[in-house]
From TrEMBL:
It comes from Burkholderia paludis. One of its GO terms (molecular function) is transferase activity. This is Glycosyltransferase. Keywords: Transferase. It comes from the Bacteria.
Length: 78
């Protein structure tokens, strides 16, 4: 993981992949994207600092943890 902040389209797939780490925007909101990109480009950006703090708290699962979750999900389907 590179630890870089991300602005993402507010689509279910990205929420599933990245949870609450990125800041999400309406994919059709051009002015909103421009505002957020400009904000993130500032050294004193509170939004960017907040996301970096979320990134630092993130713990990527090990392969064992990942497959334990999958096994649990598959068991729930029985």
């Amino acid at each position: 993981m590179l630890g870089l902040p991300v602005l993402a389209s507010d689509l279910p797939v990205f929420h599933e992949i990245a949870s609450d780490i990125p800041d999400y925007l309406d994919p059709l909101d051009g002015p909103g994207w421009l505002t957020r990109i400009r904000s993130y480009a500032r050294a004193d950006s509170i939004e960017r600092a907040s996301q970096i703090a979320r990134i630092e708290r993130f713990h990527a699962p090990t392969w064992a943890e990942h497959f334990e979750r999958i096994d649990g999900f598959l068991e729930s389907l029985r």
